Amino acid sequence: MPVCHLSATALACRRGDRVLFRGLDLTLQAGQACQVAGANGIGKSSLIRLLAGLAEPFAGTVERHGEAGLVDERPGLDPHLPLGRALAFWERFDGRSAEAVGRLGLGDLADVPVRFLSTGQKKRAALARLIAQGAPVWLLDEPLNGLDVDAVALVETIVAEHCAAGGLAVVASHQPIALPGAQRIELRDFAA
Ligand SMILES: Nc1ncnc2c1ncn2[C@@H]1O[C@H](COP(=O)(O)OP(=O)(O)OP(=O)(O)O)[C@@H](O)[C@H]1O
């Protein structure tokens, strides 16, 4: 696993004419995880986007060393392709195939177009691609949405394995997720 590090300093986020949060500090080294918690609309997705470099902070800085792997509400897979081919598209970038499809219960779905997959199956597929990507910095926005109880436990295990292998993870979720030893950020504590 490539060396990784993620930090945010005095971070503030504005969406539209509203400042959502300010004064947020975060430091994650290889092997560490953080859960970002908070009510709907408080700014969890916005924080993930700042950490991913997809949006500019209103104030403060983000420093990231290591490629980011982002999972959000869009699976990042061509909806018109069968799942197997949609995942294969990423192989040329990732340099490896999505070997976790079996573990994620997708083994029988290779011929099913992505648009026909259920919500939970799409989320599982996004996680299969995330693992294949091999990025050290995982930024997971509501990764449990649509997942059944077994899949929730699997995500908890996969995140723990990723961190044990030297990766790091930020998990934004309004649902409980077991991340032993993880930091926790309550976004309401930074409400502007
Ligand atoms: N492009 C935008 N312009 C203006 N406001 C926005 C924009 N995008 C999001 N917002 C607002 O920013 C706030 C935070 O949104 P965000 O999606 O980060 O919240 P969240 O904590 O992830 O919510 P949820 O738990 O419902 O997913 C919301 O009030 C939302 O309406």
TrEMBL record:
GO biological process entries: cytochrome complex assembly
Tree of life domain: Bacteria
SMART domains: AAA
Keyword Transport: yes
One of the Pfam families matching this protein, by short name: ABC_tran
Domain ABC transporter: start-end pairs: 6-191
Key words, A-Z: ATP-binding, Cytochrome c-type biogenesis, Membrane, Nucleotide-binding, Translocase, Transport
Gene3D superfamilies in the cross-refs: P-loop containing nucleotide triphosphate hydrolases
GO molecular function, one term: transmembrane transporter activity
Entries under InterPro entries matching the protein: AAA+_ATPase (IPR003593), ABC_transporter-like_ATP-bd (IPR003439), ABC_transptr_haem_export_CcmA (IPR005895), P-loop_NTPase (IPR027417)
Keyword presence, Ubl conjugation: no
NCBIfam families in the cross-refs: ccmA
Annotated PANTHER family: ABC TRANSPORTER I FAMILY MEMBER 1
Name of this protein: Heme ABC exporter ATP-binding protein CcmA
Species this protein is from: Novosphingobium aerophilum
Gene transcribed to yield this protein: ccmA
